[in-house]
């Protein structure tokens, strides 16, 4: 089993590249809707509830515009797409975060109406691919019945997906059984692992955000599929849905808590003996390293063995037995909110004791995974474009090496208090007479006049507050020449370079988060 | 049926592609050529990287060579790579005669094959070495073609390019066979060895007579072979105005900046980081690091530091240090393979390895096949820095290449392409330190710790031999270790 980071694995999305979020891109020809004719469509005799359910499952039309991480002052062209959503009460429609991420225009349409209503996002949880949207027009909500969230469905039990998948305009219903339940990577962020339910009910692009029902209750939210596989659809488990609903009760979405431990299995008997584990001691996971700045940092150390989590025994492959299922023990933490505690029973040097860990929010700087609805940070300085290294930036087509560098950096090197929270890149050099012969691409900044920037905001501050005419920026790598920023000259050419490249704002820098 | 037709068509096509441009060799030169041109048939075989106790499949490669001294055939180094057996064929003959490798320098790209077979000694006569050829000079390329019949092709120099390993000349040539050691002759004298051709462009490259001569002189001189100087310091072009300002160059000063110096190598103790190299060996250096050669025009200055010099020679330099021009001189230091933390990849020689508890331990080399796993990233960084990092304390990087799975190493499946940091608390500095560290278990266990983020591997010390034996039997591992000094 690979070394695992509890709940979030940096780079885990690489392995899950074949899984795809089920957002349906809208082709121009589809933009116009066929008016719904007559009353409710065929409601099978054996499914009397379907007629009522129809009104609660709506189609979502999104026009989104993501960010351009290579030319961060520009936006790519808007794109249309569609997904599904369902009513959960309190004027709230639940859908997938990937259905509404980077949305510039959002509309919803009921199956039993012709009109499209303007909608807006209330909460988006990109770490669990769930979101809640609302419609301000009172007329929209008339006669809508909220769907209840059910418990986790049993293996092989029958489920029904409802939504607006590709292949037509009207509501579509498919049926199948629960074929697998396990903790899996959510591809939307690419770095979050949560409980996932797999079904053979057809789930296709456009189903995203639609409910999966059992006995008229929501037992999952359809959200991703897998390419090159058949009859494999995935839904978000009820526990994840409940977690999201609980989280937003205070009107803010905080996200998932992180235990933050790199771990390895303990299947080797000799290693168990070496670690001083009694012969009759079963299970347990080995701590390789607590993630810097995360919840367990400072509480656990290398070669600790985690035996139990909240009193539940951890097997030697990192699972816990919940009911009849062995689920990744991330599942136990998954049920908790930030600020809650987890009790870990730890074996260290032959002694067993309990460690209480208060669950913290992942430091945004160290958090792996893609982000949405956020402007990319950047700074154009004369002909030089500086950016922080993020998964989004890597996703915009940088070399593989950068991605592996990032992984190795955080996994192997990072130490709390000693490691920078964010790496800064000289992304590229804009063509200009002042940058003639200067070639850099994705050069990782080591220091600015000898000072190592802790994050992007710090880097910008070092440049802004330097009183020197010549600032020396050194890079990582054995033979990347330093860049000498001739500030007088840069100030002179800066306006012209902005104009030439149609850069309206020369920077976007978020204030440093307080640790 | 289809296949037969296809094969027949291919054979026909091959016949059609026989070069038509070759001319029969000139009449008066013919006897001399017949006595100097050879074809080499090399049987190569190397050890399998995935199972280093095993020899891989043997294969035969052909190349060409030219006799340049008594009992010496000069050829390209890659022709004799991984050689187990070398045979020589002569002009207008199909017979093969035994020969043996005398020397190889992979950096220069040349090798010398020797022979003492009576017939060869009687038949083969060396060709004399000629003078340097320059831009626009015309000469001939000779090779033993089909059926070992000597063939002649036209050639003309169109450009020179130099590096720290030597001087190459780009040619316009009618020879379209792959460049594998055909000889360039002007007035009956050797002026180069063809190393590559670009058929579609009618171009080719020869290693210049300057480089051939230097290699042969070094090999034939008394005392040990010195070879080319190794890399010593890193430089930075100074075309960019920002760096010119930073390094304090005046408008009329040109050169390259010294950015890093490897301890113990060329320039160390004389040059300092931040110096600007204005001149070398009597030549001015421009902002791109080039100089103007009397014969060949603008060439890389690395040629002055390595390409035309031998290790141990002294070179003069003009530098700019803190705004003052100064003359200095330093020794060009050689770099023996042993002086690199990450040495060149395996040749035909048996690679060092150990199989311990199912882990296959290898030494990181320039040709190790490394994955993009988390541990692989570390190995790749070691390799990238191979020329830069002085070997220091950690002379070699020993890593787990793969795991032969067994109940003893169950759960350690992720330990893959991981550099070993310590065994039983003892730092692993090279392969020799592995068996030494295994002599002193940590209590009842052998404990392997790695540079990367992975689990420690623990093996019961008193069971190690039995585990090794079991794994060797299971996976048909014919030997559990080969370290230099072990019986071959």
Describe the structure.
The complex is a heterodimer of chains A (515) and B (488). Chain A has 515 residues and is α+β, with helices and mostly antiparallel strands. Helix content of chain A is 15%, strand content 35%. In chain A, a hairpin with a 2-residue loop joins strand 23 and strand 24 (351-358). In chain B, strands 22, 23, 24, 25, 26, 27, 28 and 29 form an 8-stranded antiparallel sheet that branches. A 6-stranded antiparallel beta barrel of chain B has the order 8-9-10-13-12-11. The radius of gyration of chain B is 27 Å and the shape is flat. Mean pLDDT of chain B is 88; it is low at 1-21. In chain B, a hairpin with a 2-residue loop joins strand 16 and strand 17. The longest helix of chain B has 15 residues, at 2-16. The interface between A and B is large, with 39 and 40 residues.
pLDDT averaged residue by residue of chain B: 88
User: What structural category characterises the helix and strand content of chain A?
Assistant: alpha+beta
What share of the residues of chain B does DSSP label as strand, in percent?
A: 35-45%
Unreliable stretches of chain A (pLDDT < 50, length at least 5) are: 1-19, 26-46
What is the overall silhouette of chain A? flat
Radius of gyration of chain A: 25 Å
User: What is the helix tally of chain B?
Assistant: 9
The tally of strands of chain B reads 29
Major pleated sheet of chain A: 7 strands, antiparallel
Mean pLDDT of chain A: 85
Low-confidence stretches of chain B: 1-21
Distance between the termini of chain B: 49 Å
């Amino acid at each position: 089993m690979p070394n695992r980071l509890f709940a979030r694995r940096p780079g885990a999305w690489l392995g899950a590249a074949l899984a795809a979020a089920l957002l349906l891109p809208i082709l121009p020809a589809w933009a116009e809707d066929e008016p719904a004719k007559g009353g409710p469509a065929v409601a099978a005799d054996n499914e009397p509830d379907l007629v009522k359910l129809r009104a609660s499952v709506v189609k979502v039309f999104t026009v989104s515009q993501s960010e351009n991480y290579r030319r961060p002052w520009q936006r790519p062209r808007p794109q249309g797409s569609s997904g599904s959503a369902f009513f959960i009460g309190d004027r709230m429609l639940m859908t997938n975060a990937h259905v509404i991420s980077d949305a510039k225009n959002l509309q919803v349409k009921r199956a039993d109406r012709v009109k499209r209503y303007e909608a807006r996002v209330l909460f988006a949880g990109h770490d669990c691919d769930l979101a809640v949207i609302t419609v301000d027009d009172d007329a929209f909500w008339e006669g809508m019945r909220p769907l209840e969230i059910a418990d986790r469905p049993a293996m092989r039990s029958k489920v029904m997906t409802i939504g607006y998948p590709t292949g037509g305009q009207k509501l579509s219903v498919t049926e199948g059984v629960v074929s697998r339940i396990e903790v899996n990577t959510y591809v939307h962020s690419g770095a979050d692992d949560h409980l996932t339910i797999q079904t053979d009910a057809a789930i296709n692009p456009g189903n995203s955000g639609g409910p999966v029902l059992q006995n008229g209750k929501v037992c999952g939210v359809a959200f991703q599929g897998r390419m090159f596989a058949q009859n494999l659809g995935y839904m978000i488990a009820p526990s994840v849905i409940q977690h999201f609903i609980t989280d937003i009760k205070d009107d803010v979405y905080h996200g998932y808590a992180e235990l933050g431990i790199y771990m390895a299995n303990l299947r080797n008997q000799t290693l168990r003996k070496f670690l001083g584990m009694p012969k009759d001691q079963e299970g347990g996971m080995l701590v390789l390293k607590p993630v810097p700045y995360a919840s367990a940092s400072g509480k656990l150390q290398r070669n600790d063995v985690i035996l139990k989590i909240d009193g539940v025994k951890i097997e030697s492959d990192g699972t816990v037995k919940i009911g009849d299922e062995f689920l990744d023990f991330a599942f136990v933490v998954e049920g908790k909110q930030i600020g809650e505690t987890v009790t870990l029973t730890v074996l260290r040097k032959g002694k067993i004791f309990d460690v209480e860990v208060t669950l913290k929010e992942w430091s945004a700087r160290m958090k792996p995974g893609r982000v949405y609805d956020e402007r990319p940070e950047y700074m154009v300085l004369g002909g030089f474009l500086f950016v922080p290294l993020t998964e989004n930036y890597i996703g915009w087509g940088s070399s593989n090496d950068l991605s592996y560098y990032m992984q190795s950096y955080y996994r192997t090197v990072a130490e709390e208090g000693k490691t920078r929270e964010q790496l800064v890149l000289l992304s590229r050099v804009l063509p200009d007479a002042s940058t003639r012969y200067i070639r850099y691409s994705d050069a990782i900044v080591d220091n600015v006049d000898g000072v190592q920037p802790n994050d992007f905001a710090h880097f910008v501050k070092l440049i802004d507050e330097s009183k020197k005419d010549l600032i020396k920026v050194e890079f990582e790598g054995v033979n990347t020449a330093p860049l000498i920023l001739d500030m007088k000259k840069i100030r002179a050419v800066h306006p012209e370079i902005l104009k030439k490249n149609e850069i309206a704002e020369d920077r976007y820098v978020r204030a440093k988060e307080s640790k | 049926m289809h296949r037969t037709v296809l094969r027949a068509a291919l054979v026909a096509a091959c016949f059609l592609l026989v070069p038509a441009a070759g001319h029969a060799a000139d009449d008066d030169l013919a006897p001399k050529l017949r006595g100097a041109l050879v074809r080499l048939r090399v049987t190569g075989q190397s050890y399998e990287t995935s199972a280093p106790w095993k020899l891989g499949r043997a294969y035969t490669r052909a190349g060409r060579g030219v006799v340049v001294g008594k009992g010496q055939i000069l050829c390209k180094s890659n022709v004799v790579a991984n050689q187990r057996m070398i045979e020589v064929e002569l002009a207008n003959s199909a017979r093969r005669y035994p020969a043996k490798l005398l020397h190889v320098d992979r950096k220069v790209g040349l090798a010398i094959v020797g022979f003492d077979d009576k017939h060869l000694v009687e038949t083969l006569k060396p060709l004399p070495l000629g003078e340097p050829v320059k831009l626009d000079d015309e000469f001939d390329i000779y090779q033993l073609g089909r059926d070992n019949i000597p063939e002649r092709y036209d050639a003309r120099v169109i450009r020179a390019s130099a590096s720290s390993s030597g001087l190459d000349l780009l040619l316009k040539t009618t020879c379209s066979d792959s460049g594998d050691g055909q000889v360039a002759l002007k007035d009956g004298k050797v002026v180069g060895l063809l190393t590559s051709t670009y058929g579609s462009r009618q171009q080719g490259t020869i290693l210049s007579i300057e480089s051939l001569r230097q290699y042969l002189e070094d090999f034939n001189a008394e005392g040990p072979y010195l070879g080319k100087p190794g890399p010593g310091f890193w430089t930075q072009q100074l075309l960019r105005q920002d760096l010119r300002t930073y390094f304090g160059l005046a408008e009329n000063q040109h050169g390259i900046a010294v950015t890093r110096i490897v301890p113990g190598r060329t320039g160390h103790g004389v040059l300092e980081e931040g110096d600007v190299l204005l001149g070398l060996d009597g030549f001015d250096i421009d902002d791109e690091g080039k100089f103007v050669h009397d014969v060949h025009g603008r060439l890389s200055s690395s040629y002055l530091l390595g390409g035309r010099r031998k290790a141990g020679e002294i070179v003069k330099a003009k530098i700019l240090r803190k705004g003052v021009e100064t003359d200095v001189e330093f020794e060009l230091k050689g770099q023996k393979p042993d002086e690199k933390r990450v040495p060149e990849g395996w040749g035909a020689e048996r690679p060092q390895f150990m199989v311990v508890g199912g882990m296959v331990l290898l030494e990181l080399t320039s040709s190790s096949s490394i994955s993009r796993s988390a541990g692989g990233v570390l190995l790749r960084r070691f390799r990238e820095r191979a020329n830069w990092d002085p070997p220091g304390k950690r002379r070699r990087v020993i890593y787990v290449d793969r795991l032969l799975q067994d109940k003893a190493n169950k759960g350690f499946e992720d330990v893959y392409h991981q550099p070993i940091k310590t065994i039983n608390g003892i730092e692993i500095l090279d392969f020799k330190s592995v068996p030494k560290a295994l002599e002193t278990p940590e209590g009842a266990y052998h404990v392997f710790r790695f540079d990367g983020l992975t689990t420690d591997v623990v093996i019961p010390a008193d069971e190690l031999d039995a585990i090794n034996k079991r794994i060797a039997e299971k996976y048909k591992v014919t030997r559990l270790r080969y370290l230099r000094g072990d019986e071959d």
